[in-house]
Specification:
Elements (H helix, E strand, L loop, with lengths): L2 H24 L27 E5 L4 E4 L2 H9 L1 H4 L8 E7 L6 E3 L4 E4 L4 E2 L2 E2 L2 E3 L2 H10 L4 E4 L5 H5 L3
Antiparallel strand pairs: 1-2, 1-3, 3-4, 5-8, 5-9, 6-7
């Protein structure tokens, strides 16, 4: 095989792997927490708090459950502390509980209200919504400070909730 064909094959293979991983992530569904599943951040039993549950699914098929989005972000932002050897690239999907209808929605696409008067199992919480308009209504009704997207949530934002 000459160099140009080898290069084309390499590019094709890289694109194929990329699109396959996207398709797998898009097809993932949330997994219900079992009674013995504990939040790796605080140690609480997650199944007791389904209204605030969140989860991270890894590409190896494993799932980690959380009693709230705040603890999920603590874990995500400090993977080396809570899951040594894991990287953000190992994450296939994140699901969070949409506040009003309690359905699990894509955590990467959700809108999070910070600083509201609604508390979760661990106190002040990031309240997730699948639609910005619903998040805005909640923000106004519950004295929220801001609406954030996934990439805007930093260790400082999470620390401000503790």
């Amino acid at each position: 095989m000459n160099r140009s064909r080898l290069k084309c094959f390499g590019i094709f293979l890289a694109l194929f792997c990329f699109w396959t991983s996207l398709a797998l992530a898009a097809g993932r569904k949330p997994v219900k927490a079992k009674p013995k599943d504990k939040c790796p951040v605080c140690g609480m039993f997650v199944a007791k708090y389904p209204d605030f549950a969140a989860q991270i699914q890894f590409s190896d098929g494993s799932t980690v459950h959380f009693d709230g989005t705040k603890d999920m972000f603590k874990y995500y932002l400090e993977l080396s502390r809570y899951a040594p050897g894991r990287k953000a690239a190992d994450i296939a999907a994140i699901f969070v509980s949409n506040y009003y209808d309690l359905t699990m929605v894509d955590g990467f696409k959700a809108f999070y209200v910070s600083g509201s008067d609604v508390y979760g199992p661990m106190g002040r919480e990031l309240i997730p919504f699948s639609r910005e308009s619903t998040a805005r209504d909640f923000l106004n009704d519950h004295k929220g400070r801001s609406i954030l997207r996934f990439h805007e949530i930093t260790p400082g934002v999470v620390k401000s909730l503790d």
